[in-house]
Design goal:
Strand 3, helix 1 and strand 4 form a beta-alpha-beta unit. The chain has a single domain, classed as Glutaredoxin. The protein contains 4 helices and 6 strands, in the order βββαβααββα. The strands form 2 sheets. A 4-stranded mixed beta sheet has the order 4-3-5-6, covered by helices on one side. It has a two-stranded antiparallel sheet with strand order 1-2.
């Protein structure tokens, strides 16, 4: 399997094949609107604004699995992100990112880039996965890692 073999559904209910992102650098993030890390939307949007034209795509996947910090509908999440953080990068429907009902994409990401001490499970909102232009998962960043902290890694892949 490759990252390009997965299909996802946008927050506006449109099916999208990740093969559409071939040749792009991807930053895939599980998000939440009512989390202490929610202000990272600002940093993610800044990276998107700065590097999108050079081939960066940020893909946001809301999840309500961590203390129910994403309780809203897909429509409410989209509105929150746009109004509060000016999010213009692609957002996808709310999904599970861990456990037996985890979306296959996140099962794959977790296998390809384990976290600290080899843990494969996603522990919290705003876990971030960096994927190179060839679809290889090259890094995983902890929820508390601010987007600006790995900007150089993104630039190196671009």
């Amino acid at each position: 399997m490759s990252i390009y073999d997965y299909k996802v559904t946008t927050i506006r209910h449109e099916e999208k094949d990740l093969s559409e992102y071939k040749g792009k650098v991807l930053l895939i993030v599980n998000t939440a609107s009512k989390c202490g890390f929610t202000p990272q939307y600002k940093g993610l949007q800044e990276l998107y604004n700065k590097y999108h034209d050079q081939g960066l795509e940020i893909l946001g996947f809301p999840s309500n699995q961590f203390n129910e910090q994403e309780p809203g509908s897909n429509e409410e999440i989209a509105e929150f992100c746009e109004l509060n953080y000016g999010v213009s990068f692609p957002m996808f429907e709310k999904i599970d990112v861990k456990g037996s009902n985890a979306h296959p994409l996140f099962k794959y990401l977790s296998e390809e880039a384990p976290g600290i001490l080899g843990s494969k499970s996603i522990k919290w909102n705003f876990t971030k996965f960096l994927v190179d232009r060839n679809g290889k998962v090259v890094d995983r960043f902890a929820p508390n890692t601010e987007p600006a902290k790995f900007e150089n890694k993104i630039k190196a892949l671009l």
